């Protein structure tokens, strides 16, 4: 069974992905908005957060450190810590992220990997104490990989936290159940900047529909626009 996926993004009314570029507000600053976001995250009661390869690389900050051979690796999955209370999931088809240890922010790391990641990369993850699931076929089916996490680790609810490309890809494939856009009182307004959801030149029209669930007024001038993501009606 696929875990329930709630996307949570801190953004500005103009949809900016980069709080460091925002205008100031008398209502609060970036750290206030991020605390507001933390509170909404808590309310979502998820056992795991999930991000794309680019975002995870920014947080993991590791460099390649392949172990010496010989090594033996497990496929299609290796779970270094099944008892963890919470997990951080990376969608990393090519195996490009390097870690400094088994956990990030106190959560156990699980990488979702493409079928052709080399054994030497899997050996590096295992040596770091990082868990992984390797896709069984060339088509990288994130839903199937998440089904494994549900079955093997009991993960039932995941908070999806970007970036734009990951949000777009998962919305297009129908894996996202709800969106929470925390809108802070700030603007970026640079031309050509990243927005919180992106799906190539094609966009998402015809691939998903949003239905408003609620609009919550939060602290520091922020609001949470909460939507159900549903399959298109035609
Ligand atoms: N404001 C906020 O709250 C917030 C939150 C998160 C991130 N960010 C910012 O967002 C920026 C990164 O965003 P981004 O859009 O460039 O990158 P991203 O979404 O973090 O990562 C995109 C990559 O993830 C992999 N991926 C994700 N979903 C996939 C799928 N369904 N199928 C196959 N591959 C998938 C692909 O990796 P491959 O290309 O290797 O296949 C893809 O290129 C960073 O600057 C970060 O700081 C901001």
From TrEMBL:
> In Gene Ontology terms, what is one molecular function of this protein?
5-amino-6-(5-phosphoribosylamino)uracil reductase activity
Which keywords accompany this UniProt record?
Answer: Plasmid
Q: Which stretches make up the Bacterial bifunctional deaminase-reductase C-terminal domain?
A: 3-221
Q: Kindly give the SUPFAM superfamilies that the UniProt entry links to this protein.
A: Dihydrofolate reductase-like
Q: Name one GO biological process term.
A: riboflavin biosynthetic process
Q: What is this protein called?
A: Bacterial bifunctional deaminase-reductase C-terminal domain-containing protein
Q: Which organism is it from?
A: Rhizobium favelukesii
């Amino acid at each position: 069974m696929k875990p329930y996926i709630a996307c949570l993004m801190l953004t500005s009314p103009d949809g900016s992905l980069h709080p460091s570029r925002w205008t100031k507000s008398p209502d609060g600053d970036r750290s206030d908005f991020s605390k507001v976001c933390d509170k909404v995250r808590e309310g979502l009661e998820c056992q795991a957060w999930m991000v794309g390869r680019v975002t995870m690389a920014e947080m993991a900050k590791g460099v390649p450190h392949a172990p010496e051979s010989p090594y033996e690796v497990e496929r299609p999955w290796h779970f270094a810590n099944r008892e963890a209370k919470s997990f951080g999931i990376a969608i990393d088809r090519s195996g490009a992220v390097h870690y400094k240890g088994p956990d990030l922010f106190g959560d156990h790391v699980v990488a979702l990997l493409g079928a052709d990641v080399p054994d030497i990369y899997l050996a590096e993850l295992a040596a770091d104490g990082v868990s992984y699931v390797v896709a069984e076929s060339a088509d990288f089916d994130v839903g199937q990989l998440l089904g494994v996490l549900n079955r093997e680790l009991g993960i039932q609810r995941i908070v999806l936290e970007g970036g734009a490309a990951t949000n777009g890809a998962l919305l297009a494939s129908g894996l996202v159940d709800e969106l929470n856009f925390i809108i802070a009182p700030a603007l970026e307004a640079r031309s050509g900047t990243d927005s919180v959801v992106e799906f190539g030149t094609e966009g998402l029209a015809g691939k998903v529909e949003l239905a408003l669930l609620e609009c919550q007024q939060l602290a520091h001038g922020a609001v949470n626009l909460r939507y159900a993501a549903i399959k298109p009606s035609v």
